[in-house]
# Entry
Amino acid sequence: MKARRPGARTAPCWVLGAYLAIGLAATSARAKETFSIDYVVTISAATPHIAEVRWELAGIEEVARLKLTFPADRYSTFAGSGTLQPLPDGMLWEPGGPYAHLTYQVEINHARGKQQRYDSYAGNGWIVTRARDLFPRIGITYHTGTTASPKSRARLIFRLPRGWRSAAPFASAGPATYPLSQPGNTLDRPRGWFVLGRFDLDRQEIDQVMVEIARLPGTTFSPRNLFDFLDRTLPTLKKLLVATPAHILVVSAPDPMWHGGISGENSFFMHTGRPLRTPDKTSPYLHELFHVLQPYRPGPDADWIEEGLAEFYSLELQRRAGLIDAPAYGRALGYFERYGLWNVDFTQQHDNAATNNSAPLVMYAIDQRIQRATAGKKRLDDAVSELAREGGEVSTARFLRAVNQASGKDFAKFFDRHVSHGIPPDIGSAR
Ligand SMILES: [Zn+2]
# Structure
């Protein structure tokens, strides 16, 4: 891309007019691309656990400096145009311009938890990792006097050993090249899970979503079963969360990867040992997919909402799809009740038994009571869709307001009793 004259920063009126003419808000004038970034990730066959990352920027007169935040033990060997100044938690980069570049190395392997299982790993001929493991967090400062909102045109490019390929949760434009676009973001950056190397990749379009399943060597998981399962559940989940993702990447890998699921942007990882449905009939896959598609984030008192909704719907969506019958559904509710942590304040709880057993049972009870209050016209879905439409941070108070709105009733007493005091809700003969 040609560097722009400094005078070209201000969006001319006709650009604004043109955007308004096609029905976009005036703020969409920012969609004018004023600079470009290529993020190039190079892996060598000799040292696959070290990624060499290079950023190539053009047309960045507006950018004064970038603050890069990263863990010191995994990032090293920074070099670039302009000046680099080490900080306690990262690096301050004044790139100069209008053309600039930055290079650094990242250690791919990252273990977590008591068992030291990996959530980023270079195996024998493959790599499973996330954007957050390869790229620092970025804070960007513009020169004063920049009147237009700058907007980047960005690409993620992998340079890989011979015979390797890549999967990422975006459409590719050529081999291992992915245009990045996040409307509303100044600086488009890579997000979500990546798979590199030798692996199986299956894809199927489900309800206008390109679902890709990457299976690493040693994975026993059947993509057919997951496609069939999602065929019956994904459309309802999309509607519930008012989500229209173009792509979803599911990554299935064996040991020594993390023994569970981890959601990311338009993608999630699941250890190959996890079944599509656990014996209690909830689904770890639907649970993670709920997190992937939820367009809100939990506030400090809302872990119980975040996990309670994902776990409740991992059961409920299967019931609606005819994948589980009433007795199995009732037994699952019974497990929530039996293994829940009760008589504690859920808004202050991060304990798994409270957030993933008690909270989904409370969600079930709320769903039942909304239906009863509205003669079946409304249900928990209406409250959840409202939160999804609004986005942002969800707190217990905001969730209560959404439930009140859906039901036309005041649930404050119910929340006080069954959320703040954690008293098990009466679910009658359902279990
Ligand atoms: Zn969860």
